[in-house]
What we know:
Layout: H1 2-58, E1 66-70, E2 77-80, E3 85-88, E4 98-101, E5 112-115, H2 116-125, H3 127-134, E6 138-149, E7 154-159, E8 168-174, E9 186-197, E10 208-217
Helix pairs in contact: 2-3
Amino acid sequence: MFSWKKDKLKNVETENINEIDLETKEEKKIFKILNILLIVILVVATLISVDIILVSKYQKGPFFAIRTNVYKDGGTKVYYGLGYKVIKYHQVVGRRDWQVGFWTMKYNIKPTSVSTLDLALELRNNPKKSFEKYQKKFLKVEGKIYKINTKKKELTLRYLDEDKKYSLDVVCSMEKNNKKLKKKDNIEVIGTVDAYTVRDSKEKDSINTLKMTHCFAK
């Protein structure tokens, strides 16, 4: 009778050990699956981040998004990726920059209108905040031609005050030269804001400079 109880106790212990082993194996299996999922998520997130950086900074790609539409405006293309959207503007005469954002981002070819005087005042009073406001924005800038560089295909609009505290050069990288344009002409230029340089106070002729790309003169 004692032997029977002893054998029964052994069987119970063996069953408990087997159950623990099964639970351990299941936990290891779940842990392994979670690790694989985490690695996949990290790889996908890295690919998306690289794609967004290449589009926004270097105008390359997108490599991990699918083209879904081509507008009949000169060839603007729309791409959708995992959680992001890319619009490669290519109007015949108009917007030519690339934009990246969420799926809700809309096709927008209407520029924000501003004068060289308004830009000069804003950038002087609060350079960092104002540049962040206009960076990568599609603008229509009104001003007077100060300089034309046909070799570099650059056109410069200038606002100049006596003390040069608010003076500003808007340097426009043109998509094409317009031979009809002349110095001191009042014109409108459309393009995308690219960079801003604050004047060097140590240099007498230094001036604040806003650079724009993909520009057209109207």
